[in-house]
Amino acid sequence: MNLPATFMELSKPLLGSQWAAFLKALEEEPPVSIRMNPFKPWTDHSTESVPWCSDGYYLPLRPSFTFDPLFHAGCYYVQEASSMFLEQAVKACVDRPVVCLDLCAAPGGKATHLASILPEGSLLVADELISNRAKVLSENLVKWGNPATIVVNNDPRELGALTGMFDLIVADLPCSGEGMFRKDPDSIEEWSPAAVICCAERQKRIIADVWPALKPGGWLIYSTCTYNTIENEENIQWISETFDATVKTVPSEASWGIAGSFDGDLPVYRFLQHRTKGEGFFLALLQKKQESTQTYSSLNTITGNLTKRSKKGLRQKETMLPDELNSILTHPDRFSFFTNETNELLAVPTVHAYSYLRLKDSLKVIHAGVPLGTFKGQDFVVHHALAMSTALRRGYFPELPLNRREAIAFLQKAPYPTFPANRRKGYHLVTFEEHPLGFIKHLGSRINNLYPSEWRIRKSCE
Questions:
Q1: Dihedrals φ, ψ of 83, to 5°?
Q2: Dmax over Cα atoms in the chain, in whole Å?
Q3: Percent of the chain predicted with pLDDT > 90
Q4: What angle is formed at CA 254 by the lines to CA 253 and CA 259, rounded to 5 degrees?
Q5: Tally of CB atoms within 10 A around 33
Q6: Sequence-separated (6 or more) residues with CB below 8 Å from residue 165
Q7: Which residues contact 453 (CB under 8 A, 6 or more apart)?
Q8: Which of the pair, 214 or 418, is modelled with greater confidence?
Q9: Rounded to whole angstroms, how far apart are CA atoms 245 and 224?
Q10: pLDDT by residue (tens digit) across 358-368?
Q11: How far is the C-alpha of 360 from the C-alpha of 336, rounded, in Å?
Q12: Domain 397-462 belongs to what architecture?
């Protein structure tokens, strides 16, 4: 591997006697790992688990995920193993339902992980500033199926205006990418000392912009996929001093091989390829100073007529669920229903309805709760997200199981060839190994494949 000379000059003193082992590890094939969705269980044949993640597993080789229907069903997420250490940081600071913000969240690795490990009753707000990446983030969270999620497409400064809204902020920040040199050779070409300085300043700006949104006593999980101390230890020290925050310890096992600080005795956690089975990663946990000022209570349960409780400026109104849809969700009594500006019917967990309204009024919300479908005249067109949601009541729609070949054809949005004569007209839930993939609509004379065009598999089968 042809590393930049300046990078080696800066990094070699940090690693000392471990430098040769580190260089050797960079020449090795990177491991492949996945994280299972605990709410969509299936039988996997992986035998080696990621020790710091309850649902993480290493694969012996990299399969073609594109042609695995279970991947598209949201049964697992392909994620770098070191990043799964997030679970330990969350366990160290969260023991009750919270409102959590995932910053710079695309493509969705940490967001889907948070959707799995946050205590039941929590709300996850995932933000991505770049529009195209925000769409990918939304797609991955829709596939994951947790109804207590909201995706927004905003600058961190706009989120910072939501004073004291979040109990936990996870900030996996844009960085110089040194930890990805082995996995992504293009990152080597993009690296420079100037890029390191630029990234460090951007990281400070993002944290400063969003800090007011973290409630007093709240927690910040700061992470990067880079090695240098400028973007890591120095920034953690800056956050601590600038905002009077305390750096906290995350419990870990010595057998995991996680390294500590390169600069002083800060309790920080660094993954290096020659010590852990994964890519380069850095994480620190900080707590905001506790203050007596009363802030927005983000987890107040809303009961009764929500529109009467809404404050001035929260413009979207609650709507009634049509009688024919009363049993479309497993627990409709736990949701509030809204019709948005595109006439789409949304189901939002009632405990988070006020938070949804506040976000909707202040930010660009591109996904929230469970989109059920859209009213078009007398017809109700179901939304693909309903098929993916764990809140869907199984049995509401007739189900059509597919084999692997048929499932891939469906995911390619190929026309459905035949249909059993005894099947009734209307919507049918397409499944693979009992996991929903989406909807088709039987019109009698033809069958419409309703899989989202922008999500379809564009490659031919290998």
A1: -65, -20
A2: 73
A3: 81
A4: 105
A5: 25
A6: 99, 101, 213, 215, 296, 298, 355, 358
A7: 413
A8: 214
A9: 19
A10: 999 999 999 99
A11: 15
A12: Roll (3.10)
Span 233-245, average pLDDT = 97
Which residues, other chains included, contact 112 with Cβ-Cβ below 8 Å and sequence gap of 6+?
Answer: 35, 37, 77, 140, 141, 144
Using one digit for the tens of pLDDT, what is the confidence trace for 279-290?
Answer: 999 999 999 999
CATH no., domain 5-20+83-287: 3.40.50.150
pLDDT of 420:
64
Measured from the Cβ of residue 365, the count of other Cβ atoms closer than 10 Å reads: 19
Residue with tokens 């994951």: 144
Residue indicated by tokens 């349960």: 301
Domain boundaries, the chain: 5-20+83-287, 302-388, 397-462
What pLDDT was estimated at residue 308?
42
Point out the residues that are catalytic: 225
Residues 6+ apart with CB under 8 A from 86: 110, 113, 114, 170, 221, 223, 283
SS3 at position 431: strand
CA atoms within a 13 Å half-sphere pointing along the CA-CB vector of 51: 11
CA distance 40 to 20: 43
Cis peptide before 107 (omega within 30 of 0): yes
- Residue closest to 430 by CA, chosen among 206, 412, 355: 412
